[in-house]
Amino acid sequence: MGNLGLKRRVRKCSFDGDDYVHIDLPNVEEVLSLNVCVQKKDPWHPDILHSSWEMLTKENFLRLFDKDGRIVDEHQLRRAIFRGGVDPSIRKEVWRFLYGLFPFHSTERERETLLVDYYLRYRARKYCCHKIISKVHGEDMIILNNADVNDDNLNEELSRITSNKNFVENNKQKLECLKLLAKLEAEKQMVDLDNLIKDIKIIKTDIVRTDRDHPYFSGDDNPHLDIARNILILFSAFHPHIGYTQGMNDILSRFLVVLDSEFEAYWCFVKYIENTQQDYHPDGMVKKLDTFCNLLEKIDPELYFFLIEAQIATQLFTRWFLVTFKRELEYNDALRLFEILSSRYLEMNSLETQRVKQFGEIAIKQAGRRIYYGEPINNSDLTFDLFVCLALLVVKRRCILLSKDGMVLGDLLCNIGKGVDLKTILNVASHLLFDYCRKSGMESFL
Question: b/e string for 248-265 if b means 16 or more Cβ within 10 A?
Answer without folding.
Answer: bbbbbbbbbbbbebbbbb
